[in-house]
Design a protein that fits this description.
heterotrimer; A alpha/beta (about 450); B alpha+beta (about 350); C mainly alpha (about 300); B: about 350 residues; alpha+beta; Rossmann fold; OB fold (Dihydrolipoamide Acetyltransferase, E2P); 20 strands; about 25% helix; C: about 300 residues; mainly alpha; MetI-like fold; about 0% strand; flat
């Protein structure tokens, strides 16, 4: 036995040596393979810039695809449209998780202006203030659009406005007239409630729908609560320090209004407690004339009751009309929200190009394209001079109102606020709480999640 | 009354006939053994008596009353299973007392009777154990205890000793017989081991292929088998059966030819010239010829020496013959030996296997 | 590479380790690491939105104190407890045992019955949710309302009037198969002659069931209880589709509570705290069952 010979020649080891050799070889192969795969992952550099745009919902995707070729040509870039899930919450959740992990697309929309603060505070959005200031379209925007494009906490602009959601009270003019109920603009909340009672007594149907309840999700706030808050005795939701004033009289007013609707059976309750609560009231009851007044927006005449909707109302223009939302003690307002503003990913590798794309998407052509598909109002006042505007008859009126439209300012933590409003209105629907109790519930919910520093403790 | 009568009993499983017209009577207090090779139907018969299987045709009476439709628990019968079938989640005491507890007998009474049984079977110290902690023999005793605590009229044993080693088997055989003497229940005992049958039974029922081959007292079966099957089944080593042909019948004696050799045998009414018969003779009824005069010449194929006796395995005319010799014997393999048959103890069987009438 | 001759034993050990290494790595990466990460996360105010998303800070046990002082959390624990006991411990078990017992006898169309029982389990969770939404739909055209209408009962709002009962029924319907399969195998393992001995001893069917079958089935029953309790505890999609946790949090099981906290509010730290508490509860359930199993047989 020659021990030295053994040490020198691993292949001579019986069994063990040969297998060890095989293992070493396979590790080497694996390493080479892994390296190659990783190398192929790195982005192709050179040639053209590629800008990825996130988009969802088929109407929006269709609109975007008509705009993309022109933008590509003008800017000399390649655009890739990344399709995202349609439901709003799914879209937003997926977007946020990608923004967090750093591989979100370069350009994307922020579905609602309330979300701008949260996204900006998290550092996901590129600051668009200078870009917008240098843009020729900036002055053409409605003032409210410019305001809502900013985050509340630092007053910087973060999105390029494209369209606005304009909401009012939609009512069945034909049925009200038939029963001799006044169709004048309600003067205040009392008048509106009286109108509702008259509807209930004379027609036996439900009078008013302000979305509420847990299953309606953010709609309880956006399509119901804020309309009331804006016209309440204390419409300011934020204090000077930027905290939520949830114990204010305004919040109380709004919740008391809900309470009245529920107590006096002016609003349907059961559908609001089931999953997808909008189906029965909006798609069935309103067309059937069993619900006569509801909050809704310009898109409703297209999607909810138009010719291509589930339950179309024939002769829509003759049967359905709008009121402004009255204030509690008088006055009237049209609610607007900045929806689908275009933002740029702070971590985008081609921020400059991305900003340019965002500005292009704020052009009049783009706004009209989206407005046509979605039934929302273009955010730019000069849109009415565009040739495509004439066809959008259902938007003319709302577009003319843009300069007097109002909105409720929110700040970071708005999703919690909206969830809190959903829970508070749910407690009213189930009768668990009265208005005061619901207000406390809202306060505790938001302060529990966002912390005491996010809310104003006093009821000032 | 615990007299058991099976009259014209048939049992089929689907198209397969397992019991084919069986008539058996077991008197009250009798220890009857059902014996036979595997597949003869003895366990099935037992289960019919127990009520675990239904009778296809025929009648089963217990104490004179028809019991075909009565459920097992109402027959007043206890059964000891081959696999013991103890309740694994209960202690020995609970196992034994289970039947009593079902009848809502008060607990102190149950305990008393369980302890009685445990004393009889000498297992008082095992009462708190679970079956999984016991040896085979101990489990067997628990199974027996479970059966006798009910003080049943009839006890059925289904090959209870087949899973035990030889020494335990001998012990338990004695135990069971002792119990029979003490309690006097009617016992039906199923086994494939004819030694158990011979030693324990007052009446043996030999079964073959689902039918009764012979019923009788052990020695009656031993000395006067009615057919070749019983003749060879009872007795160990087996009775030798030599095929022969009657050459000349008539008169006081006949000549039977076994292969190339001929022997004279007593005349029988059933003999006719040319008949093919088999001559049966037990190993202990064959003598080795000392003086050169023998019935049959044979050569030694194998010798088994047991000390107290010796078994010579011979070959005569290409037929195996076993001879039992008292004590030891000088012989070698290949030796030529002449053997003599004790004519008194010869049996004659015809071609269909039945014993030839005298 | 290897300087000395390895003994046979040592070589075998090395190969074994190398063989197990991929599985261990996967487990470490996908199970152990996320668990520890969740624990770490629960001690911060990590969020997906808002300032905390940019720079989260260590907040110690604040999430936990918030958790334990939140009545909604205790409500979700209570709802989950009722849900688990109602559907897993009682519903699925009772029907599973019944099916297991019945389907051991030769009956016609046994295969069809088997399929009917097993199919609900084969359907994905969300689809089950949608099926039962249609079942429970309010108004006279909801399936269940139509059925009870034949008996003269008014159309009900099932999910509103009996929410917890409704989801317990759905989950029971879904999980009978699992209980049935497990209990069938447990029943198979009981030797037949034990039943025969009991019959000869004079036991009625009822006595046999309660004094022989059920006690001998105990290990299987415990195993079933353990697995189904832990898996039912973790249910989310089914209930979320049906009721979103409402009305009024009456069906907000802990999975939905976590979801609402983490995604509606985008508070990852808080959601992780609830998840950690859930993990502890599941582990306690596991320890309890393992102890009980050891005691039994």
């Amino acid at each position: 036995m020659n021990c030295n010979a053994r040490h020198k020649d691993p292949a001579a080891y019986p069994g063990g040596g040969r297998t060890m050799g095989r293992i070493v070889k396979s590790v080497r192969y694996a390493a080479v393979l892994l390296g190659t795969v990783l190398a192929l992952q790195s982005p192709v550099t050179g040639a053209q810039d590629v800008i990825r745009i996130a988009e969802h919902r088929s109407v929006r995707l269709d609109a975007l695809r008509t705009l993309v070729p022109d933008i590509e040509r003008e800017l000399g870039i390649e655009i890739r449209v990344v399709e995202y899930p349609s439901p709003a919450l799914d879209y937003f959740t997926k977007l946020v998780t990608e923004l967090r992990s750093g591989n979100a697309p370069d350009v994307f929309t922020v579905p609602r202006d309330q979300q701008i603060d949260d996204l900006a505070a998290a550092g996901y959005l590129a600051d668009m203030s200078e870009t917008l200031a240098a843009w020729d379209g900036y002055e053409a925007l409605a003032p409210l659009a410019r305001q809502l494009a900013k985050a509340t906490f630092d007053r910087k602009s973060y999105v390029v406005p494209s369209i606005l959601a304009v909401e009012q009270l939609y009512y069945r003019k034909d049925i009200l007239e038939r029963h001799g109920i006044s169709t004048d603009q309600p003067a205040d909340w009392q008048d509106l409630l009286d109108r509702g009672r008259a509807i209930r007594d004379k027609t036996g149907h439900y009078a008013l729908l302000f979305p509420a309840g847990l299953t309606w999700g953010t709609g309880a706030y956006t399509e119901g609560f804020r309309h009331l808050l804006a016209g309440s005795s204390d419409p300011l939701l934020l204090s000077d320090a930027g905290r939520y004033r949830l114990r204010s009289a305004g919040v109380r007013d709004a919740l008391e209004f809900y309470e009245t609707l529920i107590e006096e059976e002016l609003t349907p309750i059961e559908p609001l407690l089931s999953p997808e609560p909008w189906i029965i009231p909006k798609y069935e009851m309103f067309p059937a004339g069993e619900l006569l007044v509801t909050t809704c927006g310009t898109w409703c005449v297209v999607f909810d009751w138009g010719p291509n909707s589930r339950n179309p109302i024939p002769d829509l223009e003759q049967r359905v009309a709008t009121w402004d939302m009255p204030g509690k003690h008088g006055g009237r307002h049209v609610m607007a929200a900045l929806v689908y503003g275009w933002a740029v990913n702070q971590k985008s590798r081609s921020r400059v190009r991305a900003r340019q794309v965002a500005l292009r998407l704020g052009s009049v052509d783009a706004s009209i394209a989206y407005a046509t598909g979605l039934g929302n109002v273009p955010a730019r006042l000069d849109a009415k001079e565009h040739e495509g505007f004439a066809a959008l008859v259902h938007l003319h009126d709302a577009h003319a109102q843009l300069t007097r439209a109002s909105a409720v300012q929110t700040t970071v933590g708005s999703s919690t606020l909206m969830a809190g409003v959903a829970r508070a209105t749910e407690s009213l629907l189930t009768g668990r709480e009265d208005a005061a109790g619901a207000q406390e519930l809202l306060f505790r919910y938001v302060s529990n999640i966002l912390g005491d520093e996010a809310v104003e403790a006093a009821a000032r | 009354m615990s007299r058991i009568e099976l009259e014209g009993v048939w049992k089929s499983f689907g198209d397969v006939e397992v019991i084919k017209g069986v008539d058996i009577v077991v008197e009250q207090g009798e220890f009857a053994v059902f014996v036979g090779p595997s597949g003869c139907g003895k366990s099935t018969l037992l289960r019919l008596v127990a009520g675990l299987e239904s009778i296809s045709k025929g009648e089963f009476r217990l104490g004179g009353k028809r019991m075909n439709e009565v459920s097992p628990d109402r027959r007043g019968i206890a059964m000891v299973f081959q696999s013991y079938a103890l309740y694994p989640h209960m202690t020995v005491a609970d196992n034994i007392g289970f039947a009593l507890s079902l009848k809502k007998i008060p607990k102190p009474e149950i305990r008393k009777r369980v302890e009685e049984v445990a004393a009889i079977l000498r297992m008082e110290d095992l009462l708190a154990r679970k079956p999984v902690e016991l040896s085979g023999g101990q489990r067997q005793r628990v199974a027996i205890g479970r059966a006798i605590v009910k003080r049943p009229q009839v006890i059925l044993f289904d090959e209870p000793l087949s899973n035990l080693d030889a020494m335990l088997r001998v012990q338990m055989r004695a135990e069971i017989q002792r119990l029979h003497q003490e309690f006097g229940s009617t016992i039906i005992y199923v086994t494939h081991d004819q030694v158990e049958a011979l030693t324990m039974a007052q009446k043996i029922v030999v079964l073959q292929g689902g039918a009764v081959a012979q019923i009788g007292a052990p020695m009656a079966l031993y000395k006067k088998p009615e057919n070749a099957f019983v003749a060879q089944f009872i007795g160990s080593p087996k009775m030798n059966l030599l095929p022969a042909q009657i050459e000349r019948a008539g008169g006081d004696s006949c000549v039977a030819r076994i292969g190339m050799q001929a022997i004279s045998i007593p005349a029988r009414a059933g003999f006719a010239s040319g008949d093919e018969i088999r001559i049966g003779i037990r190993p202990e009824h064959i003598r080795v010829s000392k003086n050169g005069q023998s019935d049959l010449k044979s050569s030694v194929a194998l010798i088994e020496r047991l000390g107290s006796e010796t078994y010579l395995h011979l070959e005569a005319e290409h037929e195996p013959v076993v001879v039992r010799i008292e004590g030891d014997m000088q012989a070698d393999v290949g030796d030529e030996i002449g053997i003599v048959f004790d004519r008194v103890h010869c049996h004659y069987f015809n071609r269909s296997g039945s014993s030839v009438a005298a | 590479m290897v300087g000395m001759t390895l003994s046979y034993e040592a070589r075998k050990q090395l190969y074994l380790r190398l063989l197990m290494a991929p599985a261990l790595l996967l487990m470490a990466g996908l199970i152990v690491f996320p668990a520890f990460y969740a624990i770490a996360l629960s001690l911060t105010n990590e969020a997906l939105l808002g300032f905390a998303a940019r720079d989260s800070s260590f907040v110690g046990l604040r999430n936990f104190t918030r958790l334990f002082t939140d009545p909604l959390f205790w409500n979700s624990l209570k709802v989950t407890l009722i849900f688990v006991i109602g559907s897993a411990v009682i519903g699925q078990f009772a029907f599973g045992l019944l099916s297991a017992l019945c389907l051991r006898r030769p009956i016609r169309f046994k295969a069809i019955f088997n399929s009917i029982i097993v199919l609900p389990n084969a359907v994905p969770e969300m689809v089950v949710g949608f099926i039962w939404i249609s079942m429970y739909a309010t108004g006279e055209y909801g399936t269940l309302n139509r059925i009870v209408g034949w008996f003269g009962v008014e159309p009900q709002q099932w999910l509103f009037s009996f929410p917890l009962m409704a989801i317990i029924i759905v989950n029971t319907w879904r999980g009978i198969a699992f209980a049935m399969i497990l209990l069938t195998s447990g029943l198979e393992s009981i030797p037949k002659d034990v039943y025969e001995a009991a019959k000869v001893d004079g036991a009625t069917d009822r006595q046999i069931f309660f004094r022989i079958t059920l006690p001998m089935l105990m290990p299987t029953i415990f195993l079933y209880m353990f697995v189904s309790t832990v898996t039912t505890f973790a249910i989310f999609g089914l209930v979320y589709t049906l009721s979103r946790g409402g009305p009024a949090n009456s069906t907000e099981i802990i999975g939905i509570y976590i979801y609402n906290q983490s995604f509606t509010a985008f508070q990852l730290g808080y959601g992780a705290a609830v998840a950690v508490v859930s993990l502890v509860i599941s582990m306690l359930i596991g320890v309890f069952y393992v102890r009980a199993l050891k005691v039994k047989i």
